[in-house]
Structures are given as structure tokens and as C-alpha cells.
Known about the structure:
Blueprint: E1 4-12, E2 17-19, H1 20-23, H2 31-38, E3 42-44, H3 53-67, E4 77-81, H4 92-99, E5 106-110, H5 116-129, E6 136-142, H6 155-158, E7 164-172, E8 179-187, E9 195-196, E10 207-208, E11 211-212, H7 217-225, H8 227-231, E12 238-239, H9 241-262, E13 272-275, H10 280-290, H11 301-304, H12 311-321, E14 330-337, E15 341-348
Parallel strand pairs: 4-5, 4-6, 13-14
Antiparallel strand pairs: 1-7, 2-3, 6-7, 8-15, 9-12, 10-11, 14-15
Helix pairs in contact: 3-4, 9-10
The structure holds coenzyme A (COA).
Amino acid sequence: MLKSKIAGIGMYVPENIFTNEDMKQYMDTNDEWIQERTGIKERRYAHRTEETTTTMGVEAAKIAIKRAGTTAAEIDFIIFATLSPDYYFPGCGVLVQRAMQMNEIGALDIRNQCSGFVYALSVADQFIKTGMYKNILVIGSEKHSFGLDFSTRGRNISVIFGDGAGAVVLQPAQKDGQGILSTHLHSDGENAEMLAMYNPGTHANHWVNDKVADFNDAEIADMFMSKEMIDKGQNFPFMDGPAVFKKAIVKFPEVVVEALSQNGLTTADLNMLIPHQANLRISQFVQQKLGLQDHQVYNNIQKYGNTTAASIPIALCEAWEQGKIKEGDLVCLAAFGSGYTWGSVLVRW
Ligand code: COA
């Protein structure tokens, strides 16, 4: 069967740098706490109105398409991973199709938060392997800054997340042994509410006893976003940090080993692990657990924070641009996040 390869990669981060010192203007926090617990020194925040999740994705996509030696007109499918779409619906995939004036190709949005890019790549890989598509654009992009709680109440989450985008173009591999060797996807919904944004959502509705009840407009609006929800901060993401941390440090190494062992390989064969940039302490724990050397793991959370679906393609792009990933290298992408969902992609570059 055909294999798919990453033929081009690009990234885009907003110019605006927001440091840990800048955070202190809004909440009771400090640089030492943030760096010690997360490794983050600064993150990028998109322009409030001029940059959206889609526009950032498009900028990353332009670079990926050029580096793949193709054009927007040749792209035959779009997959867009994000948890911060421009609109509640439709998804960002169609907005990319419009912005890049692409043909009337399929556009799919993926909602798997931190493992969104790994899931997106896995879906794209299946389409290439079956021969259905030949040029798939896969984007991970996030604009977290639009909806973080910048009061002290939200400090455990708000200091972590940043904005940015990464993109790749997947094509059929030409050389034997090159390309995506395997992908591994998992979920466990038991703790879905441990890292989540509950509102607005359809967990409440205006049906009572299977009939549309006689609520007025204000009451219906209240079901989506009531004053009580806002007062409790339920319009912002919620995270039980220690619970997420405990699960992440088990599932990250597990899914890397799963990818390697399915291909008869070991950690000694790995040239580069690109972990989702959740937290530097998580990456360091995973590195230690797997017995990897510093040169086998790439981290850039210090500069960008956690950019969720964008973190892997941004890190992969930087590592590649710095010459840390070369043809023939064995590269593992691994992610864990909200859902919980986690996964890995093993690539022979
Ligand atoms: N600045 C200063 N103090 C803060 C703070 C901040 N930004 N955020 C939380 N604190 C305080 C807490 O209020 C708490 O104070 P208390 O002891 O007086 O109650 C203390 O720091 C410890 O809080 P805790 O939440 O237990 O800290 P932690 O060591 O677990 O670190 C995280 C918090 C969020 C950094 C950590 O749990 C984590 O990284 N979890 C995984 C998150 C993650 O990866 N999410 C993305 C998933 S992909």
C-alpha cells in the first residue's frame, strides 16, 4: 500500500509577544511560578480583530504549500484541527477554501483539542494510502487569547495557552520506506470535564418532556450563557491541572512505545520526538521515562506556550528549519489532551 509523506511544512505565529511579566498586570502571578511549573517564558497573542484562527492557518498553509512544490489549486482536501474556530459553525476548513480560492474540494474540521493535529494527520494518511487524494492540506491553528480568563481566578490556565498555527501538505511517498509508518489514536471520555469549556453548549435546551417549552427569548439565551454561568467563569476553559498532568505522563510515553514497537523499533532508533507542547515538565518527564537524550526531543513551549492543535506542527516546522530533522530520520509526534484523547504518528522523514 502507498505511504504518505510530509512534503511541505509551514508555521505562523503572531508578532505580538506577551511575557510572564505582562501577565502580572492582570492577575496574581509571577515569572518564577510560571517558568518553574510550565517552562513558559512568553507566548504570542493574535491581533484582536485582524488575525483569526483561519487567517493564521492560511499563512502557515501558504508556506507549507510552497515548500511542497505545489499550489493551492492542486490541493484536493483540507483538514483543519482547532478548538478555537472563527465561528461556532461552520468550521475553519471552508474558510481556508474560500481564503485561498481553492477548488470545490472537501474540507473537514477536527475537534480533538491538543491531539487534534495527530488525529488530523492520521485521517489524511488514510486518504493518501487508499489513493483517494494526492495533496492534502492539514492545518492546526488556535487563537486562545480571545477567550482566556485574565483574572486571578483563571491563572492556572491562562498563563499556559498561546496563539499560532502550523500546516503540512501530505502527498504519496515516492521512496520505499519513507513516510508515515503508522498512526495510533486513543480516547477515554471518563474525565471529559477535567479539561473543557462547557458553555455555550447543548447540554441544556428548551425542550421539556419532549416538547418545545414556552420560554421567552431571554430565558432561552440564559440556557446558553446565563449570568450565573458568567459569574462562575463557566464561559472560560476549565482545567484540573494536577489530574491532567497525572494522566498525561502515563499516556504520552505509552503511545510513543506503542508506535515504536508496532514497527519493530525502540527508543534508540528515534532521531526526534516532537511532543505536543503541553508543559515543559511533562515533556521532561516523558523524556526521562523513555530514556531519551536532549537531542532526541524538541521543545519550544518556552517561546509560544501551549498552542494546542498548532503546537506539534509549529515545533516540527522549527526543528526541521533548524536542520534537526533530516531525510531518513525517524520522527515521532505524540500528543495528549482534553477528552482525554491522545495519539502518535511515526514518520520516516
Ligand atoms: N501563578 C501563581 N500561582 C498559581 C498559578 C499562577 N499562574 N496558577 C495556580 N497557582 C497556584 C494555585 O492557586 C495553588 O496555590 P495554593 O497551593 O495556595 O492553593 C498552587 O499554585 C499550586 O496549584 P496547582 O494547580 O496544584 O499547581 P501545579 O503544580 O499542579 O501546576 C499546572 C499547575 C496547571 C501548571 C499543572 O497542573 C499542569 O501543568 N498540568 C497539566 C496541564 C496541561 O498540560 N494542560 C494541557 C493539557 S494538553
